[in-house]
Structures are given as structure tokens and as C-alpha cells.
Amino acid sequence: MLRIWGRRNSFNVQKVLWFANELGLAYEHIPAGGEHGLIDTPEFRALNPHGRVPVIDDDGAVVWESHTILRYLAARHGAPDFWPADPAARSQAERWMDWAHTSLQPAFLTGVFWGYYRTPEPLRDPDRIRARVEECAGYFRLLDARLANQPFLGGAQLTLADIPAGTALYRYFGLDIARPDVPHVRAWYQRLQQRAPYREHVMVPFGELYGRLDY
């Protein structure tokens, strides 16, 4: 059976749990990281020497790094809907995955969510936070343009393209920050909220993370 290690309020773990449920996979979730500990044990380090979550073990195939896990699950369990045979078709989703990982996630998760929400107020850098909020606004305007004529990032149906960027929406719209008018992104967010796996695994309260850098 598939096993997934990680804490439910971890952004990167949420991507994997959401997608595993979209695929209808049976799995065992093993809480790890944060209050659950475990990640510094020799047993866990044997799975991932970096001591980070998420990690999966799929019948002996151990995989870490969230986007690598998403690709692995899609290739093994999600063809053809989530893993087309044509490399050009696959690239339609993978380019948005890589963009989310290298552009959106550093600006929002690291720059805004960590810099503002998870950093205690006396330690915050207001200028840096403001710059990252503005950077995120540009990225969400880009997403809004992409979604103006299609319901999902990859086209007419949910694909891997939606998972990384879509996971950010619950936190982005839940923070007390300035946001641009992005009606198509909001409509996309509403469509994602209609999916039970999204509600269960992404819309997880994160209040316990406020002002906590050591979690």
C-alpha cells in the first residue's frame, strides 16, 4: 500500500494528499514533522536524508520532493488523464508545475506566508513583505489571464498544472494582505472548492502556524 509521510498543515504535503485522493488511491498517512516529530529519526532519514516531508513509499518505491512525487503518482497511477503519453501534452501541465515551484511558491509561500504570517511581528521586514505581496499580485494577474477562457490551468479539466498553484489559493485568499482583482482566479478557486479532495486536504486551518518559525 502507498504510504505518505507529512503533516496535514504542510503546504507541500497538501499537494500530495490532494492529488492522491484525486487519483482515488488507497494509502496510509503517517503524520511527520512539526509537533509529530519523526523526521530526525534514523528510520525517516533512511527514507529522505534531507529530513523533509512529504515522502512516499509506494510498494517499495520511495520518493521525496513534492513535485517529483506528483509526477511519479501521475505516471504510475494517473495515465492518461494526468500523464499523457505525448511529451508535448505532458509539458502543458509540467511547465505550470515548474513555474509554480520556481516563481509563485518562493514569492508567496516563502516571501509572504513565511515573511508575514509565520514571522513574529517584531521580526518582520515590512519593505520585503510589501515587495513580495506586489510580486504575488503580478503572478495572480498572470493566472487570471490564463484562466479567462478556460476553467483550469491545463484546459477543460483538472490536470497536474492545477495542483501546485491551486494549493496556494486557500492561504492566499485567507491572509489579510492586498490582492488584485482577479475574477477568473476566484472562479477557478470556487471550482476547486467543489472537489471533495481539495476541501479535505487543502482547506486545512493554519492558525497554529501564526508567528511560528520553529514548526
Low-confidence stretches: none
Summed up, the helix count is: 8
* C-alpha-based Rg, rounded: 17 Å
State the helicity in percent bands: 40-55%
Record the strand order, biggest sheet: 2-1-3-4
- Give the N-to-C terminal Cα separation: 29 Å
Name the structural class: alpha+beta
Percent of residues in β-strands: 5-15%
What is the makeup of the main sheet? 4 strands, mixed
Task: Please outline the helices and strands.
Layout: E1 2-5, H1 11-22, E2 27-30, H2 42-47, E3 55-58, E4 61-64, H3 66-77, H4 87-118, H5 126-146, H6 162-172, H7 183-193, H8 196-201
Parallel strand pairs: 1-2
Antiparallel strand pairs: 1-3, 3-4
Report on the structure:
This protein is an alpha+beta fold. The protein contains 8 helices and 4 strands; from the N terminus they run βαβαββαααααα. A 4-stranded mixed β-sheet has the order 2-1-3-4, covered by helices on one side. The longest helix has 32 residues, at 87-118. The radius of gyration is 17 Å and the shape is globular.
Brief write-up:
With about 220 residues, the chain is α+β, with helices and mostly antiparallel strands. About 50% of the residues lie in helices and about 5% in strands. Strand 1 (about 1-5), helix 1 and strand 2 (about 25-30) form a beta-alpha-beta unit.
